[in-house]
Design a protein that fits this description.
- By secondary structure, the protein is of the alpha/beta class.
- The chain has a domain of 109 residues: GMP Synthetase, Chain A, domain 3.
- Helices cover 31% and strands 25% of the residues.
- It is built from 17 helices and 27 strands.
- It has a nine-stranded mixed β-sheet with strand order 2-1-11-10-12-13-14-15-16, sandwiched between helices.
- The longest helix has 17 residues.
- It is globular.
Length: 557
């Protein structure tokens, strides 16, 4: 490197100090007495100084138990103060914060534990049975297991597991000493995303990704220290943690409202009570908010904007949200690996509703040709005519590490020459506004959850009376897509109700993976090489739904 200046001190300071946790600590110093968190579960608030002290107790407790740099802290927690404290405490001691879906099945949870080998596992007592079963199924046993008791709900803690408040009482409230050398490339967060085979993929996020993801939100909203945010989606998602969640909010010095689970009445009430300025949620949630506000209007004039993500924002819905909730509606599109990468601003709407927007400030999004036998090169773009379909690829140098944890095969498959190949199919126009048409693979998106048929098919095939099955998605006004299962019976005595109950009770399926529609068929469409033809059954399922041939069974865990 041939530089024209002495870069030694810049590199030393930048590479060791440009971290998210340092940004949080600056706010503890400058905004110590300012509210950082409104905890709706306990109807209390914490200042930045108080939040820091609580996080220090947990950090010091973990440190005294031998948790150190690069150890994994795996949590399955609802949006809660406990979630937030594990996030802060992990970053304070150099551990890797690894949140995951609290709705995962025991088998899925066990897979993640076995793969990531966490030193700490924290779970909400509402999912105690899942946690206990997963630990029995896992090949790895975490050394420290902490149970967070849901406010107002008593629950027996399994033998050998520590109750959260008792565990924290072991640590003092002073800032833990930094006994390691921080670096901007250190992995600080690990999110989970599943592949088509169901094998969990760990998405590493480093210090630079964490800081610049916060910067991206701060820039696009824009967000400042006087704002109050509430993310209505679970924080274990990239969009939950980083879009109006803890990461940008506490980095900029704003206040965060914690809502454990979504409830439209509570959401509207909280806007008025806490003076919320920015909210984040999927379009179906915004519809429920609009319903509530129309029937029981509250003063929500503090709202500066609402950010949607997870599914397309339709024009009529957008106009309604602008009228009933706030004129400033935003829409983001992206991936777990890259955060959001295209964006619709209020000045784009409602004209461009239905599209995913165009590239964010620091990103580049292209649509490239689709080949059966190879990836398109990044410069093999399709025509910008809003008709020619291509695969969406993303260049996002600020917010991704361009890899998966210990998964070189999938890393090579998904990342190429600085681009992420998403598997999404779409079109774009001459102004580079992107419209998503569907998936290159067979993924189902239901209420913002990415669901793959292979795992559900595997679980259904475990029924002794099932010969074969195929799973697809059908349109659903609330979820975006609902799951439909087509079954070839091995035993004619099998009933759909019996099958639905089997799915409901299966430890291999999460709540959101249970099919809502079922139909018996004589055979499943296959290719000449024996592969299931999901695209054929998807087309049939839409027609069957319209013609009333799919049976809806409202079974649930």
């Amino acid at each position: 490197m041939n530089l024209t200046y002495d870069s030694k001190m810049f590199r030393q300071v930048f590479e060791s100090e440009f971290t998210w946790i340092n940004g949080f600590m600056r706010n503890v110093s400058r905004f110590g007495g300012k509210t950082a968190v409104f905890d709706t579960a306990d109807n209390r608030s914490l200042t930045y100084s108080e939040l820091n002290s609580e996080a220090n107790k947990l950090a010091n407790a973990m440190k005294s138990d031998g948790v150190k740099k690069n150890d994994v802290v795996f949590v399955q927690l609802y949006n809660s103060l406990e979630f937030l404290l594990f996030y802060l405490a992990s970053l304070k001691i150099g551990a890797i914060f690894n949140p995951a879906n609290f709705n995962l099945s025991p088998k899925e949870t066990a897979e993640i534990i076995s793969f990531n080998k966490p030193k700490v596992y924290a779970y909400d007592t509402e999912i105690s049975q899942t946690a206990v079963t997963a630990l029995q199924m896992s090949s790895h046993k975490p050394e420290i297991i902490v149970a967070a008791v849901c406010s107002g709900k008593c629950s027996d803690i399994a033998k050998g597991h520590s109750e959260f408040k008792v565990y924290c009482s072991k640590g003092d409230e002073h800032n833990p000493e930094t006994d390691y050398e921080p670096h901007i490339y250190d992995e600080v967060v690990r999110l989970q995303t599943s592949g088509t085979t169901g094998t969990p993929k760990g998405v590493p996020i480093n210090n630079i990704n964490e800081v610049l993801s916060a910067h991206d939100v701060i820039m696009h909203f824009p967000l400042n220290s006087n704002d109050v945010t509430m993310n209505m989606t679970p924080w274990f998602h990239r969009g939950g943690l980083h879009s109006g969640g803890p990461t940008p909010t506490l980095y900029v010095g704003a206040a965060l409202v914690i809502m454990r689970t979504f409830n439209p009445k509570n959401c509207i009430d909280y806007i008025e009570k806490y003076g919320i300025t920015f909210m984040t949620g999927v379009p179906s949630v915004l519809s429920l908010l609009a319903n509530r506000q129309e029937k029981h209007p509250k003063n929500i004039s503090t709202l500066k904007g609402i950010v949607t993500m997870g599914s397309p924002l339709e024009r009529n819905a957008c106009i309604r949200f602008q009228k009933v909730l706030t004129p400033n509606i935003f829409n983001g599109y992206g991936t777990t690996e890259t955060f959001w990468n295209t964006f619709l601003n209020p000045f784009d709407l409602p004209q461009m509703a239905g599209t995913a927007g165009r590239s964010c400030t620091d990103d580049e999004v292209r649509l490239v040709k689709i080949y059966d036998d190879r990836k398109a090169e990044p410069d093999e773009i399709v025509a910008m005519d809003n008709f020619s379909e291509g695969e969406v690829i993303i260049k996002c140098p600020a917010k991704t590490t361009y890899c998966y944890v210990n998964n070189p095969e999938v890393t090579e498959e998904k990342f190429y020459k600085g681009w992420l190949y998403t598997g999404d199919i779409g079109t774009w126009d001459e102004k580079q506004f992107v419209t998503i048409a569907g998936r290159k693979d067979d993924m189902i998106i239901s209420k913002g959850e990415n669901i793959y048929p292979a795992r559900i098919e595997e679980a259904i095939n475990r029924h002794p009376k099932v010969s074969e099955c195929i799973v697809t998605g059908v349109p659903d006004t609330t979820r975006g897509e609902a799951i439909a299962a087509y079954i070839v019976a091995e035993d004619e005595s099998l009933t759909l109700n019996e099958l639905a109950s089997f799915c409901c009770e299966s430890p291999y399926l999460s709540k959101y993976q249970i099919p809502r529609y079922y139909r018996f068929i004589d055979e499943i469409p296959h290719t000449a090489t024996g592969k299931k033809q999901h695209y054929i059954i998807k087309k049939q399922a839409k027609e069957d739904l319209e013609n009333g041939l799919l049976v809806k069974i409202m079974a649930g865990k």
